Amino acid sequence: MNKLNNTQFLRRYGWVFLIPVLLFIPSIGGFAFPSEDSLFSDIAISHYPNAVFLKNTLLEFKTIPLWSDSILGGFPFAANPLSGLWYPFGWLALIFPLPLGFNLLVIAHIVFGAIGVSFLIRKLGLSDSTAIFGALAFLLMPKIFAHYGAGHLTLAYAIPWTPWLLLAVLTNNKKWYAQPGLILGLIFLVDVRWAAYAGILWVAWEIFQNKSQWGAWGKKLISQIALAILIAAPLAIPFLEYLKLSTRSILESKDVLSFSLPPIRLLGLIFPDLGGFHEFAIYSGAIILILAIIAPLIKTLRKEISFWFGLVILPLIFSLGEFFPGLNLLSTLPGFSLLRVPPRALFLTGIGLIILAAYALDYLTGKSLELKEKKSIRLALLSLISFSLSTLAGLWFATKEMSINYVWGAVFLLLSYSWVLSFIANKITPKLWSRGVFLILLIDLLFVAQAGFVLKPNEVVLSDGQAAAKYISIQTGSYRVYSPSYSISQQTAAQFGLHLADGVDPMQRINYVDYMDSATNIQREGYSITLPPFADEDLSTSNQSYIPDPILLGAIGVKYIVSEFPLPFGEVARFGDTRIYQIEASEPYLSGSPNIISLTGTAPGVFLPELSYPGWQAWVDREQVEIEVLDPLFSGVYLEEGTHEVVFKFRPNSVYWGLGLGVLGIFSLFVWQIRQRQ
């Protein structure tokens, strides 16, 4: 029985939750990358530029940007899930220098998630020491740090909300009746992709907890789903509008199931893939695996742990994606694209393993095993050890090499195995054994987690293409830049306020991509997050056989082409291998703010110097006029004789509808709280 309330619990064990800070010292102000050799990270490519754009707009224009012209010829910033605009806690990062703010907020979220895990374990009736064990396993979950190394910032924010979502279902206090809907809505605002997994998990957990109360539970579930939709609406409505116009709406089965987990990678449960591919990270700790195997072998626990056992197995199967028969058919279902990259489900497996291990630890330290259970445990663990050692022997005989991944996994598996068997044989006291379990977990996961990412110095990350970006930034006129070789990184372009016609983003306007296929002469082969696409890993030469069309590029405001290889245009500057070419472009535009474009024009009319997109409105000489859609990409206004002042404003109805519904959701939540207090 727990003797401490939650506040007392945190006061006593609070120091444990500070352990993740060790992984960020001394480079806490740097950019997260998978390794020192890695060239790319989503934090540098996407999140940093978006945050810089948002912060600069707030400071300079005192307005919230709904449109951004930073990449891809312009895109609806408010509709992009990577913009960071709608997650309220994400704004805290802007208080600090970036990327320091990101790192601090990730630490805070991981600690928050670990507290949620500990509270959940306590709510399940397990001991305080077991709750700290589970919290430590979550604090150092290698998969979280591997994904953070890849730059998956919003995922690192979203995962820690998951245990709180599960905990909210167990909270019977009517005052918090609406809590699951609120949390799920927040998860959507921070990471749309994880919201799909979290939503499925939540409904399954609700069913498991309320299977004998279908009537009352059904009404509760509907009201909570309605609240989640309202809270998520500010992003959901503009996102859905953007989704149907973007390349994400035409994903094929192979795109949805990309990076499916190869079955051989299931060995990652035993042997950590140190510094390996983040999507395939599956290691949760040797002692966690062994305890999770023990849990279903204890007869009295089987009913209690049935949900968590399923949470381990089902996501594990789903993560196999195209390698598991029948999943390719599911990938064609509407909305399934939100579950793109099946191994993301391994986060659920990780949480399930932690809870299973917690149940086993709690039982072993508080109760006695039956003789039959001891035999089953010895046999199961001996089978695991035999399989692991056989795998090692096979690898050694085949390659005559043994990587640190396999050595580390084998050492900690044998250590955990020996420690558990010694306790089962009554050779160690429960207190000493528990401390040993904690120490094994701490050393194991600290080493594996730190191998999942590095923090690179800002001056290194922000120097990519800096000379070329600086040269272009001091030229007159507001023009766009195109690079077939990614010569100016998006983080560097953001620093200098450049407007890129190319770009990296998972959502791209279909009509714009089609246009750029012709303008760049680089044809796509399926879905790509880069524009232009790159056929191989050497971006500097991948597209050297393709000559861009200067007329088509000039029509969308491109004046400068920056390339690592020679092109048949007028070279105006060179920095090392980076060449800057100048072509004839359309007239530059003057932007009053990110949501407003001001220019002058004469008959017969002017083009909107941004993508044609729902929400653009026009004023000529301060009188609103109809925007004429000239083709799927271009729009503009007709003008009479003389010079006219033309102003385009981005005022999308989808954003205002979403905001209205979001306010309604918050108001409903507020009213509910007042009624419960009365």
If you had to describe this structure to a student in words, what would you say it looks like?
The protein is α+β, with helices and mostly antiparallel strands. Among the domains are: 251-427, no CATH class; 462-582; 596-650, no CATH class. It is built from 25 helices and 17 strands. Strands 4-3-7-9-8 form a five-stranded mixed beta sheet. The protein is globular and about 95 Å long. The protein starts with 5 loop residues before the first helix and ends with a helix.
Topology:
Elements (H helix, E strand, L loop, with lengths): L5 H8 L7 H4 L6 E3 L8 H20 L38 H24 L4 H12 L2 H8 L3 H6 L3 H9 L8 H12 L1 H18 L4 H30 L9 H4 L29 H9 L7 H18 L7 H4 L15 H21 L4 H29 L4 H21 L5 H21 L3 E3 L1 H4 L4 H8 L6 E3 L7 H7 L2 E2 L2 E2 L5 H11 L9 E2 L18 H6 L2 E6 L6 E6 L2 E5 L7 E4 L2 E6 L3 E3 L8 E5 L2 E3 L2 E2 L5 E4 L5 E7 L2 H25 L1
Parallel strand pairs: 3-4, 3-7
Antiparallel strand pairs: 1-2, 5-6, 7-9, 8-9, 10-11, 11-17, 12-16, 13-14, 13-17, 15-16
Helix pairs in contact: 3-22, 4-5, 4-8, 5-16, 6-19, 8-9, 8-10, 9-10, 9-11, 11-25, 13-16, 14-16, 16-19, 17-18, 18-19
